[in-house]
Write a structure and sequence with these properties.
Blueprint: H1 2-30, H2 32-37, H3 43-53, H4 60-89, H5 100-104, H6 117-122, H7 129-143, H8 162-173, H9 180-184, H10 187-203, H11 214-224, E1 229-233, H12 240-251, H13 259-265, E2 266-272, H14 275-286, E3 292-296, E4 310-315, H15 346-355, E5 357-368, H16 379-388, E6 392-397, E7 410-416, E8 446-451, E9 457-458, E10 464-465, H17 468-481, E11 515-519, H18 520-525, H19 533-536, H20 548-579
Parallel strand pairs: 1-2, 1-4, 2-3, 4-5, 6-8
Antiparallel strand pairs: 5-7, 6-7, 8-11, 9-10
């Protein structure tokens, strides 16, 4: 009887696995064309649908590491096999496909035999596949010290369904993501980022801890323009700020070598307190060939870059955290503008960022809206001191529903050490009246306020995103205010081409309801509150050409007509109630 029960369970398990495979095969067929090119519109979404079908009841936070780890493994294996084939063809010229240095010289990870994708694919249906993947990850870390401690190695755990793991491996086997052509199209980068965003959405609040929406990151990068220098993120999550910074340089490379030059021009520094998120960041940078000093640890209590003075700082700190241990840092040297309250870390983040800014450095970061106006526990005084030190360059009020992790309204702060000039960087134009000798308008004693709350579009019932046109409008307003020449925005639907500079174009002007350049005296009159809505005023209403007197006479006559109609309706209702016995 016992053996009969086992046979029944095995039969049921086989049927269940067959159903999963059939479902997956149908989705593969529907996306065959996408798989062929690995670059068609919607490819990432189709791949996500197939991968998500394999998740079953597994928690998104757990499944995230399963899938992203396999994607990373496939990427480095593809790149390795392509280089191996190239070296094999060059044996007569002295090339050695078994020499790890032949791969490292081309910035390609050496993949030991037990970690090669073909080996794993051949074993995908075996019950030992979990242990084989763990061994593969361990072998890659062993032979590539830069990845030590980064890769997930818990695929053998009993709770992970090995059938689903094998099917996920089969799915990923059907795409090319690490060969030269796919790397040129950044196929894995697109898939990886799309998966990060989908996992963040699935995890909700917890997911937002590791992922900042791409549109917010892109806006920060487009405003700061980190062409070269030291780029720092004190709470880097999955490293989206760094990835977008490098992509920005590549997109504006003007044919100067793009990818190679981008890596040479910026140095990346970051810190992340969550260990699993830190691993995501390291993998995210590795798949794009970005070298970075990404440290694990608590930024406030164990600053791993204590002497760093960064040219650009980008960050999305967790909002309003109360358990940051501020009571143990009362006399910290970073609190130059006042001791932040132990119950809220917002102004601890602000002052940590200021502390790490280079003399000509600029920072852009996300904070909760309350940071612009709060006077609790000394926060108002700290904000006042930052303003009086002329560090606040620009404030941007964001629309709601941009973030997966919170519904708290958010804003962008931009701080600049020296508001008198622009650093000399490629791609920036300067010249003309009102510009100082170094290029750019002297903005000492002024703050730019931008109210972007009405921008963006809903992508589903709960999430909004800024469009490329929205990002261009905000960034161009800021650069025009800074004194850079700005190309007028293209017609809707036409983005800037790659490598396109700002060129000759528009200058800055206040726009009621959207932007205002305010002197510090005006900010003082508002009690050092930095909410853009207080400064930009109401949006200008288009004049309809009707004289005021005529309009008032017309509206008054319309009102009288509606009052007469309302009286008739009231009388009819009263009569009906009376007939029903409820009237007077």
């Amino acid at each position: 009887m016992h053996r009969s029960g086992e046979r029944l369970r095995d039969r049921a398990s086989l049927k269940r696995n067959d159903r999963i495979r059939q479902k997956l095969d149908k989705r593969k067929t529907s996306s065959k064309a996408a798989s062929a090119s690995a670059a068609t519109v919607g490819y990432e979404a189709q791949l996500w649908q197939m991968a998500d079908a394999l998740r079953g009841s597994m928690d998104a936070a757990e499944y995230k590491h399963v899938v992203l780890g396999l994607l990373f493994l496939k990427y480095i294996s593809d790149a390795f096999e392509e280089q191996r084939a190239r070296l094999d063809a060059e044996r007569a010229e002295g090339a050695d496909p078994e020499d790890p240095d032949e791969y490292r010289a081309q910035s390609i990870f050496w993949v030991p035999p037990e970690a090669r994708w073909a080996h794993l694919k051949a074993q995908a249906r075996q019950s030992t596949i979990g242990q084989l993947v763990d061994d593969a990850m361990a072998g890659i870390e062993r032979d590539n010290p830069a990845l030590k401690g980064v890769l997930p190695k818990d695929y053998a755990r009993p709770a992970l369904d090995k059938t689903r793991l094998g099917l996920a491996l089969d799915l990923i086997s059907n795409i090319r993501i690490g060969d030269e052509a796919s790397r040129a199209r950044d196929v894995l980068g697109r898939v990886y980022e799309y998966f990060l965003s989908q996992f963040a959405s699935a995890e909700g609040k917890k997911g937002g801890e590791f992922y900042t929406p791409r549109c917010v990151v892109k806006l920060l990068v487009e405003m700061l323009e980190p062409y070269r220098g030291r780029v720092y993120d004190p709470c880097c999550g999955s490293a989206g700020m760094f990835v977008q910074s490098v992509e920005f340089i590549r997109a504006h490379a003007n044919g100067n070598g793009g990818r190679a030059k981008a890596r040479a021009d910026i140095s990346v520094y970051g810190q992340e307190s969550n260990y699993t998120t830190w691993r995501l960041a390291r993998m995210n940078l590795a798949i794009r060939g970005i070298d970075g000093q990404i440290a694990h640890g608590d930024t406030f209590h164990h600053d791993r870059h204590p002497d760093l003075k960064a040219d650009f700082i980008l960050a999305n700190p967790p909002f309003n955290i109360s358990d940051w241990g501020g009571e143990r840092l009362r006399d910290d040297k970073r609190w130059q503008y006042g001791t932040p309250p132990a119950g809220n870390a917002n102004f601890a983040w602000v002052q940590h960022i200021v502390h790490h800014l280079a003399p000509a450095g600029v920072a852009g970061f996300v904070l909760a809206n309350g940071s612009m106006s709060s006077n609790q526990s000394g926060e108002g005084e700290i904000r006042k001191q930052l303003i009086e030190a002329d560090l606040v360059d620009c404030m941007v009020a964001l629309p709601g529903q941009l973030f997966y992790s919170t519904q708290i309204p958010a804003c962008l702060w931009f701080l600049r050490r020296d508001k008198s000039k622009l650093p000399s960087l490629p791609g920036r134009g300067a010249g003309g009246e009102g510009l100082d000798a170094h290029g750019g308008t002297n903005r000492r004693g002024h703050v730019l306020f931008i109210d972007a709350r009405k921008l963006g579009r809903m992508v589903d019932r709960t999430h909004r995103e800024l469009t490329d046109e929205d990002i261009a409008r905000i960034a161009d307003t800021y650069h025009a205010w800074r004194g850079e020449t700005v190309t007028p925005p293209p017609p809707l639907g036409e983005g800037r081409g790659e490598g396109q500079g700002r060129g000759e174009g528009i200058g800055y002007a206040d726009v009621p309801g959207f932007c205002k350049s305010a002197p510090l005296d005006e900010v003082r009159k508002h009690g050092h509150v930095l909410t853009p809505g207080r400064y930009v005023g109401a949006e200008a209403q288009e004049d309809d050409g009707e004289p005021f007197e005529e309009k008032m006479q017309r509206l008054a006559a319309q009102l009288r007509e509606e009052q007469v109609e309302a009286a008739k309706l009231d009388a009819a209702i009263a009569a009906n109630l009376k007939e029903l016995g409820y009237g007077r």
